[in-house]
Design brief:
Elements (H helix, E strand, L loop, with lengths): L4 E5 L6 H15 L6 E5 L5 H8 L4 E5 L16 H6 L4 E4 L2 H6 L4 H13 L3 E6 L3 H5 L3 H12 L5 H6 L1 E4 L13 H19 L1 H6 L1 E5 L7 H5 L6 E4 L6 H10 L4
Parallel strand pairs: 1-2, 1-8, 2-3, 3-4, 4-5, 5-6, 6-7, 7-8
Helix pairs in contact: 1-2, 1-12, 5-7, 7-9
The structure holds 2-phosphoglycolic acid (PGA).
2-phosphoglycolic acid (PGA) binds next to strand 8.
Length: 253
């Protein structure tokens, strides 16, 4: 049984103080509730205050990006060890905004996945097609390439502990989410590929999140598909009440 994971990607929103207030509000809401794992990924500058405010609660903290080297002359970059020391246990890798706006490639995704694992962190590896690729019927081929190259060299054991996120680019921040059938088709395909490449047991344990305009009113239908193991939530994660409503909607027990 895979425990559902609901992850909030704050993107470039919330200062350290705002993040601490948010975490205190969220932990009050989820106190004593089980059955769903919860993670928030605030900006780098908010990681420490998030981790402090979340200490002893069920809320885990993640970073939104890392550099793959441990240290070096890379102005403006931050390593896995640095975010880990600040309290992050997860790291989002290969988000489509990083791919389209900041030149992230499958090769850099692969290096970051390895760096995250080496630092003892859980990568949340994002994949997904653009609208043009969907219209050209290339969705499944794009997912195959992103997964094959992004996870190149990973072992079955590492895959099992990883999180993937299927995020169709056309559904991110647009209010236009994939239908449960579209999401289900992509998730099923990804699971089959993981089975083929990493074996049945590892593919069964790896969690695959859906992302793209997830809201309190669509989470239940999305997560009803057996291969959808949670959600990566952008806009709707910024309000603790809306995020909590999504967590509630993901409860399967
Ligand atoms: P959204 O973002 O929920 O605002 O569409 C999702 C994401 O970018 O991970």
């Amino acid at each position: 049984m895979r425990t559902p994971l609901i992850a909030g990607n704050f993107k470039m929103f919330k200062t350290a103080a705002e993040t601490a207030d948010y975490v205190l509000a969220l932990r009050g809401l989820i106190a004593g509730r089980h059955g769903v794992e919860v993670m928030i990924a605030p900006p780098f500058t908010s990681l420490q205050s998030a981790a402090q405010a979340a200490a002893g609660s069920a809320i885990a903290v993640g970073a939104q990006n890392i550099h793959w080297e441990r240290e070096g002359a890379f102005t403006g970059e931050v390593s896995a060890g640095m975010v880990r020391e600040a309290g992050a246990r997860f790291v989002i890798v290969g988000h489509s905004e990083r791919r389209t706006l900041f030149g992230e490639t499958d090769d850099s995704v692969n290096k970051k996945v390895n760096a995250a694992i080496a630092a003892g962190m859980t990568p949340v590896v994002c994949v997904g097609e653009t609208l043009e690729q969907r219209d050209r019927n290339e969705t499944l081929a794009v997912l195959d390439r992103q997964i094959k190259e992004g996870l190149d060299g990973a072992t079955g054991e590492q895959l099992a502990a990883m999180v993937l996120a299927y995020e169709p680019v056309w559904a991110i921040g647009t209010g236009r989410n994939a239908t449960p059938a579209q999401a289900g088709e992509a998730h099923f395909h990804i699971r089959q590929r993981l089975k083929q490449w990493f074996g049945l047991e590892s593919s069964d344990r790896c969690r695959i999140l859906y992302g793209g305009s997830v809201k309190p009113d669509n989470i239940s239908k999305l997560i009803a598909h057996p291969d959808v193991d949670g959600a990566l939530v952008g806009g709707a994660s910024l309000d603790p009440k809306a995020f909590f409503a999504i967590i509630q909607g993901a409860r399967t027990t």
